[in-house]
Amino acid sequence: MNAFHTTLIKIDNNVEKLREELHQFMQRFDLSRQLKPRDEFTQHNSASRELIQAAVAKLKSVSTHHPDYNQLVIMAGSVLSSTGDMAEAESLFLQARNEAQNQADKALASFNLFQIRLRCQTYDKALADLQTAIDIDSQRYALHHVEKYPIQQILGAGGMGCVFLCHDQWGENQVVVKCFWEGRKGRRETVFKEAMLMRNLAGDYVPKPIDCDYTDTLRQERPYFVTEYIPQALDGEAWLAQHGKLDLRTGLAVGLQIAKGLQVAHKKGIYHLDLKPANLLLKQTQSGLTVKIIDFGLARVATSLKQQAVMTASRSDKSVFAQHIFGTLDYAPPEQLGETRYGEPGAKSDIFAFGATWYRLLSSESPRFPHPSELPNVPELQSLLLDCLKPHPEKRPDIDSVIARLSGLLKTQQLKPGDVFRDPLKESGLGPEMVVIPAGQFRMGDIQDTGGDDEKPVHDLSVKSFAMGRYPLTVGEFRQFVEATEYKAETGDGSYVVKEGKWQQVEDANWRNPYFPQEDDQPVVCISWNDAMVYIDWLTQQTGQAYCLPSEAQWEYAARAGTDTDYWWGNEIGKNRANSYKSGSQWSGKQTAPVGSFEPNPFGLYDTAGNVWEWCADGWHDNYEGAPTDGSVWEGDGSLFVLRGGSWFDVALWLRSSFRYRRPRTDRYLIFGVRLAMIL
After folding, report:
1. Which of 225, 277, 334, 541 is in the most buried spot, having the most CB atoms within 10 Å?
2. Please, which residues have CB within 8 angstroms of residue 241's CB and are 6 or more apart in sequence?
3. Category of 574 on φ-ψ map: left (φ > 0), alpha (ψ -120 to 50) or beta
4. Which of 90, 88, 74, 95 lies closest to 31, judged by CA?
């Protein structure tokens, strides 16, 4: 045997020793050539780290031309990544991909790069790496059926899986696909039962489920779950980063929405078990800040890396991905963190997570060490939240108690004159915007002596504080009520409209078809006093608040807003101050204007002059002789009810703050609308 052959044998022996050394590390720490997210939570000590670093250093003595070199590089990268050295592992996998001798090695190196870059949150590169691996071997590396849901971008990754923004198979709609790291096996209908059941139970509180399946249906591996995509929505952490903590009233409304979503699920024995700000989608809508809870019903689909994180002693050397998972532990109760004395996780586990999540949203601080000083100075709120965070499940309130206490907080929340608020609806969304009107005294009636006898005598009144609709009720708000109740406001003989130059009652005229185009932000018309009262009954039931029609005195007090002129801005109608006949606006004499199109009065109310007539609670009286002086409703004989404010169709005289009109309670006109009031 010559020296050349002796050298080759020596090299082969060194390569074999290195392979065996790396293989032993992989066996010892349950690693494989293909990276798994759980690898990062491998328990290492200083000795094992030093041994791994020494083994990896031996790669330098192996020729890159050796036929086994690439396999050694991939093994070394896998072992090294488990120690948290992502930069060196990334370098090794890049080298392995660039020098791959076959497509299989290139695909494996690319997939491992995807895992490394996912942990570092370099999502664009990670997606390109995953796509490379899928293009070579989709059966092995695709995390979902990519031909059915082509990937657009990575939205994020966590302890349960990776989330993609995809197109549907027709390329028409965007969807969200959540792919799980470690799924449970079983019939699809069984494994995904709770997640799909949430579609019917809590559709208002969760994104709409669309599809679910296994990527490998034969082996029941790599499950994924598809939901609707909600544009412009931010998860709770992103919302805090962009907008800061929630103000008190918004925080109460958001907390109530979350609690109601949990209530619906808990009644069917479904628990979230991973509630946290990152699993909330918040979106600002016309109805206020709305919330959707994501990952509901998925606890039975896949296991989480949370338990691996709990058992990890060292955290400082981990990736951004791992730090994110460590952060989720702050939202988990003791019974989910190995404290078996507290029993199995269940409904009360969600209560703890709710408390921690709500604390984070209200304070923008970590819930790990909650302190009342970080919360709004409302003792009842602080007490509720800290009750939710009690270590023992039996000492935490149930979800019904949480909702009752939250609702009470909303009712008793102190409001100042000028504050704008919206009450949460029981089913979903928020009610109309309301403005707190201050208590005060005013002179009611024809102060300027420009009206008729029905506006006299001018008299002094005292009015308690109340709330008034910031705008007239809109088409969108009335539609929300109709869709929720199936109420028919199109019955009877239709509505009065101007047709062929004269008023006519037309059977097919109604709030949906007032004979001019209407959008959701325009005031609803063609509704009667009776229609308004049915809406108010529904809103009161939905919110638990005392909504009503304003008394005639409340209406004039709010419309005047401290003035004694014909209009709140003066004694002349002027140009483009309101929507009425010949008022100079683009809608003048044609149709309604979108609410809020003109300047508000000093109380912050829009459209008190013009746009639509507004029903009041009072019955009609021919003058003010004997009228109440405390702002209360003046009952009539029930034949006629008061309307105030004038409309887009009317002349300036009829828009005066003191002008009065009346019609039967069943009448519907294309100029009649409503503005709400509320007892505080």
Report:
1. 225
2. none
3. left
4. 74
